[in-house]
Amino acid sequence: MNKLGRGQRDKVQQFMSITGSSEKVAVQALKASDWQFEGAFDIFYSHSHAKSAADTRHLEELYNRYKDPYADMILVDGITLLCNDLQVDPQDIVMLVVSWHMKAATMCEFSKQEFITGLQSLGIDSMDKLKERIPFMRSELKDEQKFREIYNYAFGWAKEKGQKSLALDTAIGMWQLLFAEKQWPLVDHWCQFLQARHNKAISRDTWSQLLEFARIVDPALSNYDPEGAWPYLIDEFVDYLTEHGIIQKGKLNDWSYKL
Amino acid sequence: MSSGQKKRNFQIEAFKHKVVVDPKYAEKTWKVLEHAIHEIYNHNASGLSFEELYRDDHLVMSFDYLITPVGFVFSGRRFCCGSRNAYNMVLHKYGEKLYSGLVSTMTFHLQTMSKSIEAAHGGSFLEELNSKWSDHNKALQMIRDILMYMDRTFIPSTHKTPVHELGLNLWRDNVVHSDKIQTRLLNMILELILRERTGEVINRGLMRNIIKMLMDLGASVYQEDFEKPFLDVSADFYRVESQEFIECSDCGDYLKKAEQRLNEEIERVSHYLDVKSEAKITNVVEKEMIANHMLGLVHMENSGLVKMLLDDKFEDLGRMYNLFRRVPNGLSTIRDVMTSHIRDTGKQLVTDPEKSKNPVEFVECLLEKRDKYDKIISLAFGNDKTFQNALNSSFEYFINLNPRSPEYISLFVDDKLRKGLKGVKEEDIELILDKVMMLFRYLQEKDVFEKYYKQHLAKRLLSGKTVSDDAERSLIVKLKTECGYQFTSKLEGMFTDMKTSQDTMQGFYTTYGAELANGPTLVVQVLTTGSWPTQTSVTCNLPSEMLALCEKFRSYYLGTHTGRRLSWQTNMGTADLRATFGNGQKYELNVSTYQMCVLMLFNGADSLSYREIEQATEIPSSDLKRCLQSLACVKGKNVLRKEPMSKDIAEDDGFSVNDKFTSKLRKVKIGTVVAQKESEPEKQETRQRVEEDRKPQIEAAVVRIMKSRRVLDHNNIIAEVTKQLQSRFLANPGEIKKRIESLIERDFLERDNADRRLYRYLA
After folding, report:
1. Is A228 close to B757, i.e. CB distance below 8 A?
2. Residue B80: strand, helix, or coil
3. Averaged over B283-303, what is the pLDDT?
4. Which among B512, B518, B433, B517 is positioned nearest to B470, based on CA atoms?
5. B744 vs chain A: nearest CA distance in angstroms?
6. Do B756 and A235 touch (CB under 8 A)?
7. Cβ B715–A227 below 8 Å, yes or no?
8. What's CA B274's distance to the chain center, in Å?
9. Residue B693 to chain A, least CA–CA distance (Å)
10. Which of A113, A144, A252, B465 could be a cystine partner for A220, CB 3.0 to 4.6 Å?
11. Hey, is B590 helix, strand or coil?
């Protein structure tokens, strides 16, 4: 530790708190990845993959703990239990990340396949290990690229099976959740607008384009391009904002700005 | 010299005698020549003939020896060849002397002439100048002839100025450019021109000679000594004059004056100036009188372009056109003012609520306007294409300002095809239809026109009210030529249905004729759904007599056309009823199907309540109410009596036959199905249907474009789609966007991963 610079020491601390690893392992991983977190995490977790088939048995046991008595899936009760074990609120957004890793098809349920294969790919075979992984998963939301993947995944995950579009209420709930992380100032206005003017389900294109809109266009709409191939709904949203005086001359008059 | 010798060819003989070059002899000979020149100049005034001098062989021959010991034979004289060296020597010794002598002698005479000219008073100055110029020319000619040999030998080899040119140069330097003459000459010329411009008559012949003199002296003399100052002075003159005119004339008068001045200047040039000056002086007039005052003229209150257009002042307009086309931006100025005037008045016309009340009048006003400007452009503007285009674009602009224009144009056509063309000659019908097509071309929402046209045509065909089948077909052909087969295929289907129905009816009565002879006569028109405007089928209980007959027809028809479905459109159709009233009066009533159903009920009952009627006929209430109103509440047509006598139909009202009904006519028409201007809710409905129809068209266009381009960005796709649909309607970019999103939703298209503005076709 004495040979490390202050910045590097900070990184080691961070790494340790996120992964729960020892100092030695942390330094090793960081050194090997040239002091980049991304690479260090990959290295750290891939080592965990060198687990034997013994894990499958663990995972089966784990699955059985949460599995629904009448169906070969983990349903709402099982998930509640799982969250309890993890000491995480079921509404916590990190559960979305977990589902994403597991490639779960629909919210509030995990198939056996999804559960077991998903945990295996993460190199996890116990709740403790999963619990340890939670902080890392939270950090993944901070990564721009990963956030986009998770966000777009959320559409398919949150909608009803067999439906093409996402019900408005669910969409609003998801947006509230996701943009609490991402901090988009216009999210509340967006939701109000939808309830007042649109009142219909949300298409996939609108969902994915909204993230781009939040990313690219600044909250005061100073760089909004009306010819910018934005979905019609978003154009209407911009009109709504100007109509209601929320955006005036490129300034955002937001009286309900959440900090 | 004998004349015979003159005709002989040149002979070359050996030089026979030696050259004798004696300076004293040379001097003597020169003196003779000098004297000759004097004589020429001095005898000029007396008009002596110089043939004698010219023919003086002695003089000529001596001169001959002086210049060239080698005598050239000319006109019968001898040619001798001699030694070149000797020839040159003499040339250089005596030719020089001769030439310089000529110069000094001529100069002396010119200076004398100059003084004489200077001494002239007032008007005779020019005459004197002219006279002396004439003298000099004659003299110069003679001298040149005499010295022709020098001109052809000595002068070219020494590169001196030839005699004639020399004479002109000397005249120029000594007379025209002399201090006392140069300015005076210019001033006199300009003054005369000024006088002529103010209306005086001047001596044009004299002017022509003087000006010609300047021209003869060379282009630079003409330009420097006359043309340039002339143009400057003219510019000043016209600048002042145009300012005066414009303050006291109206536009038309000013243009007349300008045209007059222009013509005067052109005429002046033709009479006494160099033709090359024409373009220059006309430029000056154009600039000062027209270009500088263009905007002032066009916008002149109460007499400018707009007033001329309003009052059809063809002559003034034509004059303006011809004058303005001479100056830069002249025509575009006229065109722009005309365009904005047409747009303004057109906009007023189409947004005037008064005019909108009567669609036929509305369209007639449009046609009138078009005719007016057509006439102006052809009579006054020489059928200028750019003006035609400006007219067209203006019409296109304001016609589309009123969203009901397509409907009104269709109503106009309807009116004409119903009755307006009765008795009109075929060629005139074609004319009217062509004019309608012209207006049609201006419409941006051609699909709205199509919808209304279809509705109106259906009504015309079904009520048998069309005046001329040929006229109908002619218009359809024109629409087809303009818009393509798709536009008119359904319309043509309607005509086919009418014809087929006739054949069907014939077949029906041939088969059942005998059976049905005693019952009511049925005439059925079988309409193919899809070709005709969409109708919702409504309930209606037909009277039993009709029911049986209709069923018989239905089974007959389906017998020959299996697999089809027939539904009776009871909201259309008419019936002729023979009615006998209580007062013994008999009438033939022409009524609608609904009205027939209601009236037939009274064969079985004396009075009926509204509710009973409704129950029996099952006609929808709003239609039933309207129907009862037309039967009971309209003066002259009230075959039914209503209790109470109020105008509105209430659920508790009672109806009975009006036995006191009378009418002047034996045949009474009660229900007519005439194409009316739509009511507000109907209009909304039609518009909605049009919008709905547009959606699949937009989608089809998007798919077509994406299929061929594979990948395209947002702005380009909007532009392409708009262009493709232009001939039918103006596509709304917002609507196009919605269609694109719908296509993305249905996996026809996707957004590109990297560039969100790019769309990709999914096979």
Report:
1. yes
2. strand
3. 93
4. B433
5. 7
6. no
7. yes
8. 36
9. 20
10. A252
11. strand
**Chain A nearest-CA residue for B717:** A229
Per-residue DSSP letter, A166: B
Give residues with Cβ within 8 angstroms of B746, minimum separation 6. Answer: none
Q: Cβ contact (<8 Å) for A232 and B741? A: yes
pLDDT at A46: 64
Give the C-alpha separation, B450 to B761, whole Å. 32
Q: Give SS3 for B79.
A: strand
Question: Measured between alpha carbons, how far is B622 from B612 in angstroms, rounded to an integer?
Answer: 15
Interior angle at CA A158, CA A117 and CA A114, nearest 5: 10
Taking only the tens place, the pLDDT of each residue in B450-502 is: 989 988 898 888 877 777 888 888 899 999 998 888 888 888 889 999 999 99
The residues, ordered by sequence, that sit 6+ positions from A66 with a Cβ below 8 Å of its Cβ are: A74, A78, A79, A81, A82, A110, A115
CA distances in angstroms from B589 to A196, B577, B581, B601, B657, listed in the order given: 57, 5, 12, 15, 14
Instruction: For residue B436, count CB atoms less than 10 angstroms from its CB and return exposed for 0-12, middle for 13-18, buried for 19 or more.
Output: buried
Per-residue confidence (pLDDT) for residue B25, from 0 to 100: 65
How do the domains of chain A map onto residue ranges?
6-51, 56-140, 144-252
Query: Helices B251-272 and B179-197: crossing angle, nearest 10°?
Result: 140
- Closest listed residue to residue B461, CA positions, set B430, B432, B418, B413: B418
Residue B87 confidence (pLDDT): 42
**In angstroms, rounded to a whole number, what is the distance separating the alpha carbons of residues B641 and B639?**
7
Query: A-chain residues within 8 Å CB-CB of B713?
Result: 229
pLDDT beyond 70 at B240: yes
With beta carbons less than 8 A apart as the criterion, state whether B538 and B597 touch.
no
- Looking at domain A6-51, does it have CATH number 1.10.8? yes
CA separation for the pair B743, B705 (Å, rounded): 13
Tokens of A153: 């995944």
For residue B442, count other CB atoms closer than 10 A to its CB.
20
Contacts of A156 by beta carbon, 8 Å cutoff, 6+ apart? A105
The letter for the amino acid at B61 is M
- CA terminus-to-terminus distance, chain B: 110
- Tokens for A23, please give them: 């100092």
- In the chain, the amino acid numbered B78 is R
Other beta carbons less than 10 A from residue B279's beta carbon: 9
The SS3 call for residue B641 is: strand
Sole residue written with tokens 């003499």: B90
CATH 2.102.10.10 assigned to domain A56-140? The reply is no
Structure token pair of residue B594: 């609904």
CB A197 within 8 A of CB A227: no
Bridge partners of B577? Answer: B589
**Which residues, including other chains, have CB under 8 Å from residue B261's CB and lie 6 or more apart?**
B238, B241, B285, B289
Q: Which of B689, B686, B665 is nearest to B677 (CA)?
A: B686
Could A232 and B737 be called an inter-chain contact, meaning their C-beta atoms sit closer than 8 Å? yes
Q: How does the average pLDDT of chain B come out, rounded?
A: 84
Given a cut of 80, is residue A45 above it in pLDDT? Answer: no
Superfamily of domain A144-252: Cullin, PONY binding domain (1.10.238.200)
Residue B685: band (very low, low, confident or very high) from pLDDT cuts 50, 70, 90: confident
Whether the bond into B733 is cis, omega within 30 of 0: no
Determine how many CB atoms are found less than 10 A away from the CB of residue A75: 16
The identity of residue A19, as a single letter, is: T
A56-140 and A144-252 have identical folds: yes
Phi, psi of B472, deg, nearest 5: -60, -50
What CA–CA distance (Å, rounded) separates B589 from B601?
Answer: 15
ipTM of predicted complex: 0.73
Judged on CB neighbours under 10 Å (0-12, 13-18, 19+), B751 is: buried
Q: Cβ contact (<8 Å) for A229 and B757?
A: yes
Residues listed for chain B: 763
Do B509 and B519 contact (CB within 8 A), yes or no?
A: no
3-state secondary structure of B591: strand
